[in-house]
Amino acid sequence: MAKLIDGKAIAAQIKDECREKVAKMKSEGVEVTLAVIQVGNDPASTVYVGNKKKACEYIGIRSLAYELPEETTESELLELITELNGRKDVNGILVQLPLPGHIDEEKVLDAIDSRKDVDGFHPQNVGALCIGKPGFVSCTPAGIIQLLKRSGVEIAGKECVVIGRSNIVGKPMALLLLRENGTVTVAHSKTKDLREVTKRADILVAAVGKPKMITADYVKEGAVVIDVGIHRNENNKLCGDVDFESVEPICSAITPVPGGVGPMTIAMLMNNCVESVALQQ
Ligand code: GUN
Q1: What is the pLDDT of residues 20-53, one digit of tens each?
Q2: What is the DSSP code (8-state) at residue 274?
Q3: What angle do CA 262, 8, 200 make, to 5 degrees?
Q4: Which of 6, 30, 43, 224 could lock onto 25 through a cystine, CB 3.0 to 4.6 A?
Q5: Is residue 119 flagged as an active site residue?
Q6: Active-site position among 15, 38, 96, 171
Q7: Omega into 258 within 30° of 0, i.e. cis?
Q8: pLDDT value at position 233?
Q9: Span 106-120, mean pLDDT?
Q10: Integer Cα distance of 12 and 267 in angstroms
Q11: What is the band of 136 on the pLDDT scale with cuts at 50, 70, 90?
C-alpha cells in the first residue's frame, strides 16, 4: 500500500512556521502586508481570495482587500498596481486570476513590481528561477517540492516526469526539480507514447487538467505520484488527474485529492509573503 502524502498536515506545518516568523518580525516592529486584488465576481476566485485572507489572519499578515467591479478598466487596474508598487507599507501584491476578458492579463502581471510579486508570475522571477537566482517561485510547484522533501522523497538523480507545460505549474515545476538535481522530462498533449514516457518516472507530477486520466498503466511500480488536478465528478465529488483507485496500489507514495497539493498553494503564498520582507530590505 502506498504512503499517503498529507498535504493538509504539511501545509499546516508551513503555516505555523510562517506564523512564528511573523510574530518575531512583529516583536521587532516589522509588519507584513499583502494586497489582494479581485476584479469581478467569479465564484471560484471569491472562494480562493477568501481562503487567502483567512490564512493571512491566522499567520498575522495584514491583508488589504481590493474587490473591484467587473467593469473596472485595464488602466484603472494598472493605476492601482502602480500605487501599491510605490507603497512602502505593502510587501506583496496578488491579482487573482482569471481577469475579465477586456483586461490583458500579461500586461497586468508585468506591471507588478517583481519584488512584490508573491505569486511568482513576473518574467523577472521566472527568469531568476531559470538561472538559479533568488526570487519568488510560483506557489503550487514550490509547494510540491516541500511535499516531496518533507515526506523524505529524494529528488537528486531521480527520473522526474512532469505532465503539463503551463507557466504556473508545469514549467516552474520542471525547473525546480532540475534545481534539486532530478533528471527531468516535460510531457504534454503532443507527446508521443505518453505511457512510455511516464512509465520511466520515479517521480511523476500530473498537471494535465483531465479527470482521472492517469491510470495504473501510466505508472511504474514504486513511483511517487503527485496529483495537481482538481475536478468535480458527476456526483459532485472531488477527484484529481490521477485515477487514485487504480494507481495507489502500485505506487510507493501518492497525494490524495483533496488534501494533497491543494492546501500547499496558500501555505507557499504565505511563505512568499514572509520572505518578501527580506527580499525588499
Ligand atoms: N487563480 C488560480 N490560481 C491562482 C494563483 O495561484 N494565483 C492567482 N493570482 N490567481 C490564481
Answers
A1: 999 999 999 999 999 999 999 999 999 999 999 9
A2: H
A3: 60
A4: 30
A5: yes
A6: 96
A7: yes
A8: 85
A9: 98
A10: 8
A11: very high
In this prediction, residues 240-269 reach a mean pLDDT of 98
Residue with cell 509547494: 143
pLDDT of residue 146: 98
**Of ligand 1's atoms, which has the minimum distance to the CA of residue 140?**
6
Write down the pLDDT at residue 104. 98
Residue 119 Cβ inside 6 Å of ligand 1? The answer reads: yes
Mean pLDDT computed over 140-161: 98
Between CA 34 and CA 27 the distance in angstroms is: 19
Q: Does the C-beta of 38 come closer than 6 Å to ligand 1?
A: no
**For ligand 1, is residue 112 a contact (CB within 6 Å)?**
no
Amino acid letter, residue 107: K
180 lines ligand 1 (CB under 6 A): no
pLDDT score at 234? 86
Q: Does the bond joining 123 to the residue before it have cis omega, within 30 degrees of 0?
A: no
Question: Residue 22 has which C-alpha cell?
Answer: 511573523
Measured from the Cα of 265, ligand 1's closest atom is: 6
- 52 catalytic? Reply is yes
Spacing, Cα 96 to ligand 1 middle (Å):
5
**CA 173 – CA 264 distance, rounded (Å):** 14
Q: Would residue 212 show up in a list of annotated catalytic residues for this protein?
A: no
Quick check: 57 pLDDT over 90? yes
CB burial string 146-178: b at 16+ within 10 A, e below: bbbeebebebeebbbbbbbbbebbbbbbbbbbb
Q: Out of 117, 119, 202, 241, which one is annotated catalytic?
A: 119
Query: Is residue 155 in contact with ligand 1, taking CB distance under 6 Å?
Result: no
Determine whether the shortest distance from the Cβ of 139 to ligand 1 is under 6 A: yes
- The amino acid that residue 57 corresponds to is E
C-alpha cell at 201: 518516472
What's the rounded Cα separation, in Å, for the pair 54 and 135?
A: 25
Closest CA to 34 of 272, 208, 262: 272
